[in-house]
Amino acid sequence: MELLIIRHGQSEADLLGVHEGRADFALTKLGELQANTMGAYVAEHLPPDIILASPLLRAKGTAEILQKFVGCNLLIETDLMEFNNGVLAGLSKEVARVKYPLPLAGRPLHIPIEKGESELEFRFRAERIFHKIMQDYQGYNRVAIVSHGGFISQFIKAFLKQPNESEFGFATSDTGLHLLEIKEKARIIRFLNKQEHLKGEID
Known about the structure:
Layout: E1 2-7, H1 13-16, H2 29-45, E2 50-53, H3 57-70, E3 73-76, H4 93-99, H5 119-136, E4 142-147, H6 149-159, E5 177-183, E6 186-194
GO molecular function, one term: phosphatase activity
InterPro entries: His_Pase_superF_clade-1 (IPR013078), His_PPase_superfam (IPR029033), PGM_Phosphatase (IPR050275)
Pfam families: His_Phos_1 (PF00300)
């Protein structure tokens, strides 16, 4: 099985300087263009058999554009949502620094942000949906997963069986692509954060 993991295109929050997380912003015009360019590339080079997506507008919108190009089924999986950042969702970063400052030593992994989830809960959610996909979609050759930057990093950590306190992270740019392969006795990274579909198309 191959897992084609895709971050959504640019969202309105990217232009507003706010914390996004569970705040439900839609794609910008540029984000829609990025998603269309990605969709055409994926349809030609890496067509999936099924698409799974976060229900948040920016990811769902990206997945719907991809679906237009590849024509396969699109299913919503709530566990693919971005980190639940609680009271920070939609709040300007300047206001958040004053109103909800981080503890000097950082927030412990097991302590959730107010009205949100903890880093441990976030990681467990990534583990849960990873194993669900392995079980429920094992009959598909290639599964596309459209999600969010923070979640994608946690998902790749789950794929690599990294510990909860791993210092490694995996960045994903707008409509960046990651291709992971699962064989009987191996987990293989084919590529990470590929964006060649945007080269020469979007300036």
